[in-house]
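Please produce the structure of this protein holding guanosine-5'-monophosphate.
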Amino acid sequence: MNEERNGRREHGPILLSESQIAERVRLLGAEIATDYAGRLPLFVGVLKGAFVFMADLVRAIDLDVEVDFMALSSYGRSTETSGVVRILMDLDEPVQDRHVVLVEDIVDTGLTLSYLEEHLATAGAASVEVCALLVREGRQHDASHIKYVGFELPPAFVVGYGLDAGEYGRNLPYVAEHIQ
Ligand code: 5GP
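Below is the modeled complex.
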Protein backbone atom coordinates (compact mmCIF):
# COMPACT_ATOMS: atom_id res chain seq x y z
CA MET A 1 0.00 0.00 0.00
CA ASN A 2 0.96 3.65 0.23
CA GLU A 3 1.85 3.68 -3.46
CA GLU A 4 1.21 6.62 -5.76
CA ARG A 5 -2.34 6.56 -7.09
CA ASN A 6 -3.55 9.45 -9.22
CA GLY A 7 -0.86 11.52 -7.55
CA ARG A 8 -2.22 10.88 -4.01
CA ARG A 9 -0.96 8.28 -1.60
CA GLU A 10 -3.35 5.88 0.00
CA HIS A 11 -4.43 5.91 3.60
CA GLY A 12 -6.56 3.66 5.76
CA PRO A 13 -10.14 4.22 6.94
CA ILE A 14 -11.31 7.76 7.70
CA LEU A 15 -11.73 8.02 11.49
CA LEU A 16 -12.99 11.61 11.68
CA SER A 17 -14.77 13.27 8.78
CA GLU A 18 -14.39 16.90 7.77
CA SER A 19 -17.85 17.74 9.12
CA GLN A 20 -17.32 15.91 12.42
CA ILE A 21 -14.14 17.90 12.96
CA ALA A 22 -15.76 21.20 11.96
CA GLU A 23 -18.63 20.67 14.42
CA ARG A 24 -16.29 19.76 17.27
CA VAL A 25 -14.00 22.72 16.58
CA ARG A 26 -17.03 25.03 16.58
CA LEU A 27 -18.02 23.76 20.05
CA LEU A 28 -14.48 24.02 21.40
CA GLY A 29 -14.29 27.59 20.11
CA ALA A 30 -17.54 28.52 21.84
CA GLU A 31 -16.38 26.94 25.11
CA ILE A 32 -13.04 28.73 25.01
CA ALA A 33 -14.70 32.07 24.16
CA THR A 34 -16.88 31.72 27.27
CA ASP A 35 -13.95 30.72 29.49
CA TYR A 36 -11.69 33.54 28.32
CA ALA A 37 -14.26 36.36 28.10
CA GLY A 38 -12.67 39.62 29.21
CA ARG A 39 -9.12 38.35 28.68
CA LEU A 40 -6.73 38.37 25.73
CA PRO A 41 -5.54 34.77 25.47
CA LEU A 42 -2.38 33.84 23.62
CA PHE A 43 -2.78 30.71 21.51
CA VAL A 44 0.47 28.83 21.09
CA GLY A 45 0.38 26.29 18.27
CA VAL A 46 2.81 23.43 18.14
CA LEU A 47 4.19 23.12 14.62
CA LYS A 48 3.88 21.62 12.29
CA GLY A 49 0.99 19.33 13.20
CA ALA A 50 -1.29 21.91 14.85
CA PHE A 51 -1.31 24.45 12.02
CA VAL A 52 -4.63 23.39 10.49
CA PHE A 53 -6.41 22.92 13.83
CA MET A 54 -5.06 26.25 15.08
CA ALA A 55 -6.33 28.10 12.00
CA ASP A 56 -9.84 26.69 12.37
CA LEU A 57 -9.93 26.96 16.15
CA VAL A 58 -9.04 30.65 16.44
CA ARG A 59 -11.64 31.51 13.81
CA ALA A 60 -14.26 29.67 15.90
CA ILE A 61 -13.52 31.93 18.89
CA ASP A 62 -15.56 35.10 19.10
CA LEU A 63 -12.96 37.04 21.10
CA ASP A 64 -9.77 38.96 20.36
CA VAL A 65 -6.90 36.51 20.57
CA GLU A 66 -3.19 36.51 19.75
CA VAL A 67 -1.35 33.61 18.15
CA ASP A 68 2.20 32.38 18.22
CA PHE A 69 3.93 29.14 17.25
CA MET A 70 6.63 26.85 18.49
CA ALA A 71 8.34 24.10 16.58
CA LEU A 72 9.57 21.06 18.41
CA SER A 73 11.15 17.87 17.43
CA SER A 74 10.45 14.63 19.20
CA TYR A 75 9.57 12.21 16.43
CA GLY A 76 11.66 13.17 13.45
CA ARG A 77 10.32 11.20 10.52
CA SER A 78 9.59 8.11 12.54
CA THR A 79 6.17 7.07 13.82
CA GLU A 80 7.58 6.09 17.19
CA THR A 81 8.59 8.59 19.85
CA SER A 82 12.28 9.09 20.38
CA GLY A 83 11.53 10.33 23.88
CA VAL A 84 13.53 13.48 23.26
CA VAL A 85 11.96 16.93 22.85
CA ARG A 86 13.96 19.75 21.28
CA ILE A 87 12.84 23.34 20.61
CA LEU A 88 13.46 24.10 16.94
CA MET A 89 11.65 27.46 16.98
CA ASP A 90 10.69 29.42 20.08
CA LEU A 91 7.96 32.03 20.63
CA ASP A 92 8.27 35.55 19.21
CA GLU A 93 6.95 37.36 22.27
CA PRO A 94 7.43 36.80 26.01
CA VAL A 95 4.63 34.84 27.69
CA GLN A 96 5.17 36.56 31.05
CA ASP A 97 1.75 37.17 32.67
CA ARG A 98 -0.12 35.88 29.60
CA HIS A 99 -3.03 33.46 29.64
CA VAL A 100 -1.72 30.80 27.28
CA VAL A 101 -3.72 28.15 25.45
CA LEU A 102 -1.39 25.52 24.10
CA VAL A 103 -2.78 24.04 20.89
CA GLU A 104 -1.65 20.50 20.11
CA ASP A 105 -2.58 18.24 17.23
CA ILE A 106 -2.40 15.00 19.20
CA VAL A 107 -1.36 14.00 22.67
CA ASP A 108 0.07 10.52 22.73
CA THR A 109 2.34 9.81 25.70
CA GLY A 110 2.00 13.43 26.85
CA LEU A 111 5.77 13.88 26.85
CA THR A 112 5.70 16.83 24.43
CA LEU A 113 2.94 18.43 26.45
CA SER A 114 4.60 18.14 29.86
CA TYR A 115 7.76 19.58 28.40
CA LEU A 116 5.89 22.56 26.94
CA GLU A 117 3.75 23.20 30.00
CA GLU A 118 6.87 23.35 32.12
CA HIS A 119 8.62 25.58 29.60
CA LEU A 120 5.73 28.09 29.57
CA ALA A 121 5.25 28.03 33.34
CA THR A 122 8.95 28.69 33.83
CA ALA A 123 8.66 31.59 31.38
CA GLY A 124 6.10 33.17 33.74
CA ALA A 125 2.77 32.55 32.00
CA ALA A 126 -0.19 33.59 34.18
CA SER A 127 -2.00 30.39 33.19
CA VAL A 128 -1.48 27.53 30.76
CA GLU A 129 -4.33 25.39 29.45
CA VAL A 130 -4.16 22.76 26.76
CA CYS A 131 -6.42 22.34 23.75
CA ALA A 132 -5.69 19.12 21.89
CA LEU A 133 -7.56 18.03 18.79
CA LEU A 134 -6.83 14.38 19.55
CA VAL A 135 -5.90 12.50 22.69
CA ARG A 136 -4.86 8.88 22.34
CA GLU A 137 -6.71 6.75 24.87
CA GLY A 138 -4.84 5.23 27.74
CA ARG A 139 -1.33 6.39 26.84
CA GLN A 140 -0.82 9.29 29.25
CA HIS A 141 0.18 9.21 32.84
CA ASP A 142 -2.49 11.78 33.67
CA ALA A 143 -4.78 13.21 30.98
CA SER A 144 -6.99 15.10 33.43
CA HIS A 145 -5.12 18.37 32.94
CA ILE A 146 -5.93 18.50 29.23
CA LYS A 147 -8.78 20.96 29.51
CA TYR A 148 -10.05 21.04 25.93
CA VAL A 149 -10.14 17.75 24.05
CA GLY A 150 -11.45 17.40 20.50
CA PHE A 151 -11.64 13.63 20.26
CA GLU A 152 -10.25 10.59 21.99
CA LEU A 153 -8.47 8.28 19.63
CA PRO A 154 -7.72 4.54 19.61
CA PRO A 155 -4.11 3.33 19.13
CA ALA A 156 -3.88 3.76 15.32
CA PHE A 157 -1.30 6.17 13.93
CA VAL A 158 -3.22 8.84 12.02
CA VAL A 159 -2.67 11.38 9.26
CA GLY A 160 -4.64 14.36 7.98
CA TYR A 161 -5.89 17.74 9.22
CA GLY A 162 -2.30 18.84 9.83
CA LEU A 163 -0.91 15.50 10.97
CA ASP A 164 1.66 13.76 8.83
CA ALA A 165 3.55 10.56 8.32
CA GLY A 166 6.93 11.54 6.92
CA GLU A 167 5.36 14.84 5.69
CA TYR A 168 2.58 13.01 3.84
CA GLY A 169 -1.07 13.72 4.62
CA ARG A 170 -1.06 17.14 6.30
CA ASN A 171 -3.48 18.62 3.77
CA LEU A 172 -6.12 15.89 3.97
CA PRO A 173 -9.28 17.61 5.28
CA TYR A 174 -10.13 14.62 7.52
CA VAL A 175 -8.25 12.33 9.93
CA ALA A 176 -7.50 8.85 8.60
CA GLU A 177 -5.54 5.85 9.69
CA HIS A 178 -2.05 5.73 8.26
CA ILE A 179 -1.00 2.62 6.37
CA GLN A 180 2.59 1.75 7.21
P1 5GP B 1 3.68 12.65 22.73
O1 5GP B 1 4.83 13.51 23.14
O2 5GP B 1 2.39 13.01 23.40
O3 5GP B 1 3.99 11.19 22.87
O4 5GP B 1 3.52 12.84 21.18
C1 5GP B 1 2.91 13.95 20.64
C2 5GP B 1 3.39 14.22 19.24
O5 5GP B 1 3.67 13.01 18.54
C3 5GP B 1 2.33 14.91 18.43
O6 5GP B 1 2.40 16.32 18.54
C4 5GP B 1 2.60 14.41 17.03
O7 5GP B 1 3.57 15.23 16.42
C5 5GP B 1 3.20 13.04 17.22
N1 5GP B 1 2.20 11.97 17.08
C6 5GP B 1 1.74 11.14 18.03
N2 5GP B 1 0.83 10.29 17.54
C7 5GP B 1 0.68 10.61 16.24
C8 5GP B 1 -0.15 10.09 15.19
O8 5GP B 1 -0.97 9.17 15.32
N3 5GP B 1 -0.01 10.69 13.97
C9 5GP B 1 0.87 11.70 13.74
N4 5GP B 1 0.92 12.18 12.51
N5 5GP B 1 1.66 12.22 14.72
C10 5GP B 1 1.56 11.68 15.95
